[in-house]
Every structure is written in structure tokens, then in C-alpha cells.
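In full, the data:

***
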Amino acid sequence: MASVYSYYTYLAFRVLAPLKGLQLLNIIFGQHFREKYVQHNRKINFLMRLIELYKPYLFLKAVFDDMNTVKLQLAVMEGGAGADADVFYFDPNSINWEDLLHQNSYSWSR
């Protein structure tokens, strides 16, 4: 999907249209599918809120530059082992990024 518009179009046909069909069936059959409709409606509303929340990042085409961090690392390593070396040493490769993102992305839902 190339744009937010195409993403919303996809959701309209693949997610929202079947939900509207279930809503119509629910009305025709006298609320027989009420629980299923409410359950799916809640999930879709949650999905739509997540999409709105993360919309700026969905199709972000950014390049993150870490050159200042690399320069800081080199300066600290060349400067010798002083008190500043412990304070200012930062190695992004030492971070378990997958674990960090996993913990932070699910912490708000607890």
C-alpha cells in the first residue's frame, strides 16, 4: 500500500463492508448476531483508533542519522578511560531493540 488513502480503501472493503453486512443480518434476524457484531465492532473501533494514533508513522519515509552518536563514541574512546568515558559512552548496538520496542509498545495497554 502506497498511501494512507489506499490503506483506508483497503480497510473499507475488507473490514468495514463485512461489518456492515453483519449489522444488516443482525437487524434482519432480530438481533440474533448481536454479540458477534458487538465483538467485531469493538475490535474494528480499536483498530481504527490505532491507525489514527500511528498514522504519522505508517508511511514515514525517513532516514535516521546517527552520525553525532558515532562521533561521540569515537571522541570518548580516543579520550582515554576517564570519568567522562563511563558517563558519555553510548553504544546503540548494545541495546536489545526488539525487546525494548516490545516492552514499550505493550506497556500502555496494561
In short: The two ends are 31 Å apart (CA to CA).
